[in-house]
Amino acid sequence: MNTTKIKICSSCESEFSCGDISVESKCWCNDYPPIFNLSEGADCLCPVCFKEACEDKIDAYIETITPKNALKNKAISLPQTTKLIEGIDYYIENGNMVFKTWYHLKRGTCCGNNCRHCPY
Questions:
Q1: Contact assessment for residue 32 and residue 54, using Cβ atoms and an 8 Å cutoff
Q2: What would the pLDDT profile of 64-92 be if each residue is shown by its tens digit?
Q3: Burial readout 31-58 (b: 16 or more C-beta within 10 A, e: otherwise)
Q4: Measured distance CA(23)–CA(15) in Å, rounded
């Protein structure tokens, strides 16, 4: 039984579907990295605001990464998601997928291909 819930974004106040709340893994937000601790009273964000909040939080974290501390970063220890998200894991440039620093941090090691955004 699908128990989709309509919610109001706590940031932009737009309506959005919260997914199947009877099964935790069915909500669209579970495709994103679990990097937020919701404080009491906080509510969900719509897909657009949530993606923007994730990008902002990840970008702030990446600014603290150096080659020395990259091997012990928190991205490796997070539960892995199977879906790559444009803007978080990669961007498209001239028709090519370019992996961002977050993607490399999740992988945990350097592949040796001299990637543009390699943190190692």
A1: yes
A2: 999 999 988 989 888 877 789 999 999 99
A3: ebbeeeeeeeeeebbbbebbbeebeeeb
A4: 21
**3-class SS string, the chain:** CCCEEEEECCCCCCEEEEEECCCHHHCHHHHCCCCCCCCCCCCCCCHHHHHHHHHHHHHHHHCCCCCCCHHHCHHHHCCCCCCCCECCCEEEECCEEEECHHHHHHHCCCCCCCCCCCCC
Measuring CA to CA, which residue among 42, 28, 120 is closest to residue 81?
A: 28
Half-sphere exposure of 47 (CA within 13 A, CB side): 12
> How far is Cα 47 from Cα 88, in angstroms, rounded to an integer?
13
Query: Which range is least confidently modeled, 7-11, 18-22, 64-68?
Result: 18-22
Q: Give residue limits of the domains in the chain.
A: 4-107
CB 45 within 8 A of CB 15: no
